[in-house]
């Protein structure tokens, strides 16, 4: 006779009630202890033959492996180089962009604006009209950053001669790349391409990037995970708020910058530029997250989500155990607050690779540590805590390194489990910038958004199919034995 | 439109706080644009581009707060600036902790918050229920699985998993259990005592436990197995586990096994295990020819099961373990029988409990002949249309064909009242047999819902020169939350013959028509 059953009969059991509230009430009426759950039906009715996948220990083990790799990846930014020279698979005519694959015809306003800006920056066109004509004619090959070990905020456009940071995984073999942050307002990543935007990009590639590259080489590399971990305890969530992280990065790099062989005026300009831009670090937070997420990708059988990304038209996700296939659906429009003179009608649908931060267990998932952000939706710090608590319901681990003081230093929710999203109907919580829907205008606000459910339901169907096929295969194998 | 700008020197506010207030001020009538910004160069550029420029902005530093308003008139603009500054400075209200105010959305979270909870009760729709059940088992928790419509494949898989993990899985389709003094699902307020029950029949368990309470004894535990446990495909996994558990349980002196007709092979395995468990065992397999097995007392109905178990547990002589007042009820039936009009010859059973319906048909069939049903004793007695009675008909109104999308008659009498109305209009009907199941989880006043309809039916019948008899098995105990005596009074006042035993109710009904 099992000891556990014996113990059960010896005690007055405490009950967890999943389902009808009537039964919880009945236990309470009898003086019993009962704990309730707010149960909601899953997003899809699972195939009855595949129910076991939700609790399959081999999937749990694969997810545990994946999330451990994600948490233990150690992204260190070591250098700066021209995109064409370092990004795998990049040609002289490749423009990388945020989100899942897209062509010019389907590109939204801000992505089109950024592509036009990149054409002007590369000297492929001398007017926006010429740039558009060439882009329409297929002069440029468009490809997602994510398929080239890269990420970029908002439109996320990286063209061949743009400078990129090189970030390595000091606890693995993968590396990732990202571009430089240009500041806020009228910037290329938001779809602006006015002359001052292109001029700023030139200054970045001629002055800022080479100096930062030199300083990074002198430093021997800066550990980005450490900066993120500290910033999460200083009010940042490192997606939409990067004040603390930018300051920490500034402190680390400043001495090496001062030691650089360059005119003092240039060094001062670089330091001022970093200091004046609260979002300077966001690209580094993203590239760190990309290193983490890629380390977790490709684990057979894992249902861990390793990419969340948007191109301004569609939202796309990828799953560790489902290869490089994108599951896409039309992107939602963020709710939020707008800069003076703009309103919800100006907002473009969700855009950018920056949701890689949520993928890696910070950004919106660490909102409890960044209460100021929640005011974007008229919320309170309590709503910030609620948002993070909700994400624990769909993640497989609590982060070993990223911790939140407001939750008694509990680790952030990390590693989105596709199965948990399906089961609970809870979609990842994202806080994000908002771009104007027309090209050439730029950022108009910031807010919060969730991915479309269809990305997850489609991915689930594929996962379930793979599971059943694998299952059938092993059954056949057994039969043959 | 006019533009008014105010600079508050050395007042840092977070940009999000500023945007939040700006959004509020923006909604004021007459305000076209409200901008609250710190004086950084990027922000100054933004103000210049939005046409909110003011010469005093030449002097600001990044630590200065700028409030810029474009409004219809001076007064609106000034008021808006004032409101903006006030809102920024306003104190925020105290709130309660979120972690405590929010219910967990997943079993995993609930287990994290209440690691001491040993038992998980699941009543979500069947296609999803196995997911939660398996998660609970793998987390080392026992499971009470109320949900039905779980596939055979999943039932067997989960039961084997529970067995492997040394855990108790009650269900699927388990309506009732009683563990350590706590009733789960639908259960009556029974005294604790020496009799342990393993039941593959929910209302059967309620009937037996309630009668044991009536007879002055009590229940140690009531383990539910779900209705299909004794099918050959499942092999009685949970019932065998339950027998072992009660055999090892110090508070259990007598073990009582209940089931609807089991697969013969499975019944044999169960009885063999029972015979060697080391404690007296009473077995009631409804519809199963009572074959004697050494060491097991096989009985034919639920009331007998309760009597024999109490007799064994308390050493009281069997003929002293009886319900009071049955003789008086017999006399009353005799009197009512005399008032039937010619042609009134059939019984109609309107049940909420499947096991009780089955038991009643078993008892009646020998004497009154064929009984049609949606849960017939023999397949040829199945009603082609379960909504239309003929001759003797007994219906389980808790079956899927009645309850899909509607509340179960244990919770709400609507389904039963509709059916009752049609049965009483049939001039061939002499008596109606009903079960009213009390207890936790059941409707709060079932008698109150049924009595007016019964009374009306009787009056109508009387006007038409007929008499209608009602027999109610009022399943419950004196401690049930509905107040047993009050329920009984209400039903009796409406003219019903009320007894706590379903077998007795059936026997009385037989006397009316046989």
Give an overview in words.
The complex is a heterodimer of chains A (481) and B (514). Chain A is α+β, with helices and mostly antiparallel strands. Helix content of chain A is 39%, strand content 19%. Chain A contains 15 helices and 18 strands. Chain A has a 5-stranded mixed sheet with strand order 6-8-7-3-9. Chain B has 18 helices and 19 strands. Chain B has helices at 15-26, 41-49, 74-89, 98-101, 107-113, 129-138, 152-165, 202-214, 237-248, 264-275, 302-314, 326-338, 354-368, 400-403, 414-424, 446-463, 484-493, 502-513, and strands spanning 2-8, 31-38, 65-71, 119-122, 142-145, 169-170, 176-179, 182-185, 192-199, 219-224, 254-259, 281-285, 296-299, 346-351, 372-373, 393-396, 429-437, 469-475, 496-499. In chain B, the strands form 5 sheets. Chain B has a 6-stranded parallel sheet with strand order 15-16-14-17-18-19, with helices on both faces. A 5-stranded parallel sheet of chain B has the order 10-9-11-12-13, with helices on both faces. In chain B, helix 6 links the parallel strand 4 (119-122) and strand 5 (142-145). In chain B, helix 6 (129-138) runs parallel beside helix 7 (152-165) and helix 15 runs parallel beside helix 16 (446-463). Chain B is elongated and about 105 Å long. Strand 1 of chain A pairs parallel with strand 4 (119-122) of chain B, so a sheet runs across the interface.
Strand order in space, largest sheet of chain B: 15-16-14-17-18-19
| CATH architectural grouping of the largest domain in chain A | Alpha-Beta Complex
Report on the biggest sheet of chain B. 6 strands, parallel
Q: What is the end-to-end distance of chain A?
A: 35 Å
Count of alpha/pi helices of chain B: 18
Number of helical segments with 4 or more residues of chain A: 15
What structural class do helix, strand and pairing data of chain A support?
Answer: alpha+beta
Mean pLDDT score of chain B: 92
User: What's the CATH superfamily of the largest domain in chain B, by name?
Assistant: Succinyl-CoA synthetase domains
Provide the helix percentage of chain B: 25-40%
Domain count of chain A: 3
Low-confidence stretches of chain B: none
Helix content of chain A: 25-40%
Average pLDDT of chain A, rounded to a whole number, is 94
Number of domains of chain B: 3
Shape label of chain B: elongated
Count of beta strands of chain B: 19
Largest sheet of chain A: 5 strands, mixed
The secondary structure category of chain B is alpha/beta
> Strand portion of chain B, in percent?
15-25%
């Amino acid at each position: 006779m099992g000891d556990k059953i014996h113990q059960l009969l010896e005690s007055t059991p405490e009950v967890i009630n999943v389902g009808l509230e009537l039964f919880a009430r009945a236990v309470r009426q009898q003086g019993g202890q009962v704990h309730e759950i707010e149960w909601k039906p899953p997003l899809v009715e699972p195939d009855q033959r595949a129910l076991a996948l939700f609790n399959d220990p081999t999937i749990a083990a694969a997810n545990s492996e994946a999330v451990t790799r994600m948490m233990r990846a150690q992204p260190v930014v070591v250098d700066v180089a021209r995109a064409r020279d370092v990004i795998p698979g990049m040609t002289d005519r490749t423009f990388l962009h945020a989100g899942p694959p897209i062509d010019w015809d389907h590109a939204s306003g801000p992505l089109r604006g950024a592509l036009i800006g990149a054409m002007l920056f590369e000297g492929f066109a001398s007017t926006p009209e010429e740039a558009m004509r060439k882009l329409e004619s297929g002069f440029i090959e468009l490809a997602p950053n994510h398929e080239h070990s890269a990420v970029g905020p908002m439109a996320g456009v990286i063209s061949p001669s743009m400078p990129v940071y090189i970030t390595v995984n000091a606890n693995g073999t993968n590396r990732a790349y990202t571009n430089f942050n240009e500041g806020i307002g009228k910037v290329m990543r938001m779809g602006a391409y006015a002359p001052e935007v292109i001029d700023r990009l030139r200054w970045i590639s001629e002055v800022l990037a080479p100096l930062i590259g030199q300083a990074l080489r002198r430093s021997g590399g800066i550990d980005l995970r450490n900066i993120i971990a500290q910033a999460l305890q200083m009010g940042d969530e490192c997606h939409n708020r990067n004040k603390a992280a930018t300051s920490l990065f500034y402190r680390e790099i400043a001495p090496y910058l001062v030691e650089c062989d360059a005119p003092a005026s240039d060094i001062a300009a670089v330091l001022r530029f970093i200091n004046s831009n609260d979002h300077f670090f966001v690209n580094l937070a993203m590239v760190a997250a990309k290193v983490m997420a890629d380390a977790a990708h490709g684990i057979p059988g894992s249902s861990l989500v390793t990419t969340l990304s948007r191109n301004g038209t569609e939202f796309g996700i990828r799953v560790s155990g489902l290869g490089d296939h994108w599951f896409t659906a039309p992107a939602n429009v963020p709710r939020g607050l707008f800069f003076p003179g703009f309103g919800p009608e100006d907002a473009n649908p969700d855009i950018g690779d920056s949701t890689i931060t949520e993928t890696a267990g910070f950004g919106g998932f660490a909102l409890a540590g960044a209460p100021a952000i929640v005011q974007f939706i008229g919320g309170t710090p309590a709503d910030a805590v609620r948002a993070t608590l909700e994400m624990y319901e769909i993640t497989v681990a609590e982060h070993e390194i990223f911790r939140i003081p407001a939750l008694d230093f509990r680790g952030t929710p990390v590693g989105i489990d596709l199965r948990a999203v399906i089961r609970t109907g809870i979609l990842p919580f994202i806080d994000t910038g908002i771009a104007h829907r027309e090209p050439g205008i730029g950022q108009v606000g910031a807010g919060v958004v969730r991915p479309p459910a269809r990305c997850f339901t489609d991915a689930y169907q594929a996962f379930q199919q793979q599971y059943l096929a694998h299952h059938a295969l092993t059954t056949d194998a057994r039969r043959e034995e | 439109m006019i533009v008014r700008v105010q600079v508050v020197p050395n007042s840092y506010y977070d940009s999000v706080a500023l945007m939040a207030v700006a959004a509020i001020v923006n909604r004021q009538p007459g305000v076209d644009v409200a901008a609250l910004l710190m004086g950084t160069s990027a922000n100054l550029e933004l103000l210049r581009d939005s046409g909110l420029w003011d010469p005093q902005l030449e002097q600001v530093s990044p630590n200065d707060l700028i409030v810029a308003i474009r409004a219809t008139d001076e007064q609106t603009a000034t008021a808006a600036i004032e409101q903006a500054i006030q809102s920024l400075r306003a104190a925020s209200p105290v709130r309660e902790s979120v972690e405590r105010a929010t219910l967990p959305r997943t079993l995993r979270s609930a287990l994290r918050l209440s690691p001491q909870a040993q038992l998980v009760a699941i009543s979500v729709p069947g296609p999803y229920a196995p997911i939660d059940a398996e998660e609970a088992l793998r987390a080392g928790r026992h499971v009470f699985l109320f949900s039905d419509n779980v596939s055979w494949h999943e039932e067997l898989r989960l039961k084997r998993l529970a067995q492997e993990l040394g855990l108790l899985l009650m269900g699927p389709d388990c309506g009732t259990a009683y563990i350590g003094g706590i009733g789960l699902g639908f259960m009556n307020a029974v005294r604790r005592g020496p009799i342990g029950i393993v039941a593959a029949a929910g209302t059967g368990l309620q009937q037996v436990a309630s009668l044991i309470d009536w007879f002055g004894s009590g229940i140690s535990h009531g383990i539910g197995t779900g209705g299909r446990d004794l099918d050959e495909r499942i092999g009685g996994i949970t019932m065998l586990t339950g027998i072992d558990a009660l055999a090892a349980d110090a508070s259990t002196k007598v073990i009582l096994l209940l089931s609807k007709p089991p697969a013969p092979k499975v019944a044999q395995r169960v009885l063999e295990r029972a015979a060697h468990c080391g404690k007296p065992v009473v077995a009631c397999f409804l519809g199963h020819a009572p074959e004697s097995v050494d060491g097991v007392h096989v009985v034919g109905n639920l009331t007998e099961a309760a009597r024999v178990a109490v007799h064994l547990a308390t050493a009281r002589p069997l003929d002293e373990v009886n319900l009071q007042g049955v003789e008086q009820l017999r006399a009353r039936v005799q009197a009512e029988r005399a008032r039937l009009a010619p042609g009134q010859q059939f019984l109609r059973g309107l049940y909420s409990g499947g096991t009780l319906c089955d038991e009643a048909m078993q008892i009646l069939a020998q004497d009154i002949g064929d009984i049609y049903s949606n849960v017939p004793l023999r397949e040829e007695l199945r009603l082609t249309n379960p909504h239309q009675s003929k001759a003797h008909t007994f219906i389980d109104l808790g079956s899927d064909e009645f309850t899909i999308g509607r509340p179960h008659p244990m919770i709400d009498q609507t389904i039963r009242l509709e059916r009752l109305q049609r049965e009483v209009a049939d001039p061939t009907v002499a008596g109606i047999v009903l079960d009213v199941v009390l207890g936790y989880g059941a409707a709060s006043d079932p008698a109150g819902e049924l009595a007016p309809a019964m009374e009306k039916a009787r009056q109508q019948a009387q006007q038409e020169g007929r008499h209608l008899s009602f027999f109610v098995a009022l399943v419950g105990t004196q401690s049930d939350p509905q107040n047993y005596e009050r329920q009984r009074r209400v039903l009796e006042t409406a003219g019903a013959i009320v007894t706590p035993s379903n077998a007795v109710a059936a026997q009385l009904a037989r006397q009316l028509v046989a």
